[in-house]
């Protein structure tokens, strides 16, 4: 939440597009960490018989936010300024941080895990190369040298990243979970609903 607050504040006060982009990156990093930790905390706080209820409430908030956010943002841009979008987020995040200081406690014992620098570098080049390759392929074509080089770097880096994670005692990403057939099936099922083919998803009929 602190990263999200700092990123939102930087966006609200940004005098140039470069600083606005930097603030958005910080904001996105904070939101990404927050989303992951929130689900972990829910599973640690709630007993097994109430986890379904907690996750359903969490999912309802996630589904409701994209519908409410653009509406409020549109009103702020129309009547005030785009900076007020981030100023509102600063106020909300600041209030949450202030309330958390008095009401939220650690749900587990603090740990100090070792950060493997090589894994961070490999994951950055791996995921970044693949994403950049797919992003530029739409404009430059799949035969473009930029696309081929970025995809090659991404695939090689990801392969080395996965190999290293399998050898570490405390990996950044534990790929051993994919040995469970049920997990793989659930991931494939959920991913199929994000596939868009001619505006249709697997649950629709032609």
UniProtKB/TrEMBL annotation:
Cross-referenced Pfam families: MFS_1
Protein topology in the membrane: Multi-pass membrane protein
One MF term in the entry's GO annotations: transmembrane transporter activity
Compartments, record wording: Cell membrane
Transmembrane segments: 54-77, 84-105, 117-135, 147-165, 177-196
Keywords for this protein: Membrane, Transmembrane, Transmembrane helix, Transport
UniProt keyword Transmembrane helix present: yes
Domain (Major facilitator superfamily (MFS) profile): residue spans on this chain: 1-206
UniProt GO cellular component terms: plasma membrane
Name the record gives this protein: Multidrug resistance protein B
Organism: Bifidobacterium breve
């Amino acid at each position: 939440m602190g990263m999200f607050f700092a990123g939102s504040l930087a966006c609200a006060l940004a005098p140039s597009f470069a600083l606005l982009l930097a603030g958005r990156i910080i904001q996105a990093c904070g939101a990404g960490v927050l989303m992951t930790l929130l689900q972990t905390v829910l599973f640690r706080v709630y007993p097994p018989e109430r986890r379904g209820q907690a996750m359903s409430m969490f999912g309802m908030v996630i589904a409701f936010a994209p519908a409410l956010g653009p509406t409020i943002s549109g009103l702020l841009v129309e009547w005030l300024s785009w900076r007020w979008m981030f100023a509102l987020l600063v106020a909300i995040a600041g209030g949450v941080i202030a309330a958390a200081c008095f009401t939220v406690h650690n749900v587990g014992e603090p740990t100090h895990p070792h950060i493997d620098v090589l894994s961070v570098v490999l994951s950055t080049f791996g995921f970044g190369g693949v994403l950049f390759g797919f992003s530029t392929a739409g404009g430059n074509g799949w035969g473009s040298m930029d696309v081929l080089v970025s995809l090659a770097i991404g695939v090689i880096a990801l392969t080395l990243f996965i190999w290293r994670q399998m050898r570490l005692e405390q990996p950044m990403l534990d790929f051993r979970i994919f040995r469970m057939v049920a997990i793989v099936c659930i991931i494939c099922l959920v991913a199929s609903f994000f596939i868009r083919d001619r505006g249709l998803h697997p649950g629709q009929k032609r």
